[in-house]
Request: fold
Amino acid sequence: MTKYDVNNIAVSSLLASVKNGEIAIPEIQRPFVWDSTKVRDLIDSLYQNYPVGYIIVWQNPDVKLKDGTLSIGKKVLIDGQQRITALTAAIVGQEVVGADYKMKRIKIAFNPLDEQFDVATPATTNDVKYISDIAEIFDAACDVYSFVEDYCESNGLTSKEDKSKISRIITNLKSIENNNLGVINLSHELDIEQVTDIFIRINSKGVVLSQADFAMSKISSNEVYGGNVTRKIIDYFCHLMQSPADYEMIKNNDIDFSSTNEFSIIKWVVRENEDIYIPDYTDVLRVAFTYKFVRGRLSDLVALLSGRDFETREFKDEIAETSFNDLHDAVLSVVNETNFKRYVMILKSIGIEKASLVRSQNVLNFGYTLFIGLRSRGIDSNIIEKTVRRWIVATMLTGRYSGSPESSFDYDIKRFMSFENPLEYLEQFEAGALSDAFWDHALVDHLNTSVASSPYYNVYLMAQVNAHDKGFLSEQIEVKTMLEERGDIHHLFPKKYLMKHGITNKSMYNQIANYAYLQTEINIKISDDAPKDYMAVVSKQIETGQGVYGGITNNEDLKKNLEMNCIPEGFENMTIEDYPNFLESRRKLMAQKIKEYYCSLK
Reply:
């Protein structure tokens, strides 16, 4: 099987293929991100007959229609949109959508005397040496002979040689549309993994295009079944999640879409200030597809949107139509205000106060997938919340979705949806992955690390938030507040103290078992003393009732504070010799706290 073929195509033919729909340009890369100087450089390269790289198209398969006839598949542009958009802007004179979602013209000026291209400015517009907009030359109504005569007259060029030279240069300029671009046509028989691999190998920029990008290309380029509308729901939702201030700009510059029901469904985002779960378009697509189609591999989505019948291996129009409609409905469920807010409430209820506590976005993605999927089945809300809470924490502790998540997504969604009570699958998973051996040994060993963003330490912090624990030596301020306001992470055995006594290895003095959140002013008071010394000061202050640390006024409160921060007994007497045993003891206490926290979610 020929995987792809390479051809040359004239600029004019390429633009004609785009115009008549033979090549479909997805809107995945919109808005136009090139600055005007890159457009100028592209036109100059074509004028100089320099290579400008390849564009890559993927042939859609021929689809069997309901009447039994075949519809010839379009070619979908998967790389080169910015170059083609630049050509239509500079040569055809079409407006493009800028980063501010406003339509604008990009005009390229040309000085025939110097054969120099420039981005059009008021200066070039007022300079008779410049053609202020080269699109005029490519207009079918342009009479090159008359244009040359007028240009030469304006610039005082009267000799036959001058006119001949300008005529030749203008002809060369106009011939840009006859220059060739390389086109790589990828076969429709290739699966998405092969297309991904080929794309990486032949893309000169070393850009990796994800399977989500390919799926979005399929979605964006389909207008028959509303794929372009689905793309806009995803794109604008994700954009407004990060930049709600752009709402009016998008509304005013995409009037057609802003009048739709779909746009009204996502506008709630503008009123929110959410920073725990901020999905990008890949996340929205993955959640929507996995929950609705009960599949985890995005390559399957591409196949379904193409109309693939997995049993007969044919491509059928009715499958494509159903798939686009189902995906549209699924995306609306993902961006639904009630669904989203209830899911975020679940995240907060287990102690996730900020996004950085969950290192893997796919943990949050599958949690939302599970939440919507179970809701769509009408499962009791209490069972849904219990299942989702425990599953999120369990997958954080086991690293289930680290790396490539698709096979795990596929396996887990099929299992959860096959059980009448989803807790049954969860309990099966817990029995294997969260046994006593995990809690008593594996988790303790996982806590033996200096990686501050360790998922195990993050779950420990979630446990503290969930339990409303106070910061170290504080009676007033909770760990939750310190996380929100970026409180200090303190070394219980101060770093300088450890280094002073010969522990200079960063991985040793930065052990997460040596960390605790506390107030800045307490951190300053502790300074670089040994635990024995600064805890003696604490005891003295409690005894005298003066200058009490963090509001702690009695030994009972102090004892509770040390317990909630997993500080081992005897800490108040510890010096450098006790550091190794301290770390070992605290890891066990932290692991026990995490276990009790997890069990409380049941």
Q: What stands out?
A: The chain has a mean pLDDT of 87.
